[in-house]
Amino acid sequence: MVRADARENRARILAAARQAFAEDGGASMNQIAQRAGVGPGTLYRNFPSVEALVLAIYQDEVDQLVGTVPELLAELPPLEALRRWTTELVSAMRKKHGLGDALSPGAHKPITEQTYGPVIGAITQLLDAGKADGTIRADADPGDFLQLTGALWRAAAGGNDRSQPMLALILDGLATRR
Q: Which fold would CATH assign to domain 1-48?
């Protein structure tokens, strides 16, 4: 069992690193430790490298995003839940792109491998709910949907955010014809 102070240190480090990397993809481990109010030993005990730290940030964000699916499905019809969840996914993908500056090219593959399964699982839950109530086509595939959303985060960059109109087209294509 992890002690409460160790959990708090880890949470402070993740929050400080998330903010530091958002401001400067080249933030150093020492800058992050200072920002988190912990010593370098505490930082390196939790995260032995920048890549381990970035992986933990990604995993934390994916866990939070995946964890919202049951609540969204309890509150909203499946297509609207999928719209809201995908909007959050696009936001997370844009952040991930910024965090990627802190990684070596070889570290991108482990991140994708680590997060792909949980994200596909969340999309599957959302699509299955819509299939069950008849609002989403029976042939809707989670992998295809994830691949399509890859275009959305690129469309959200810059001054002319086209991600919501594009998402509407994707969701229209998923909807059953009544």
A: Arc Repressor Mutant, subunit A (1.10.10)
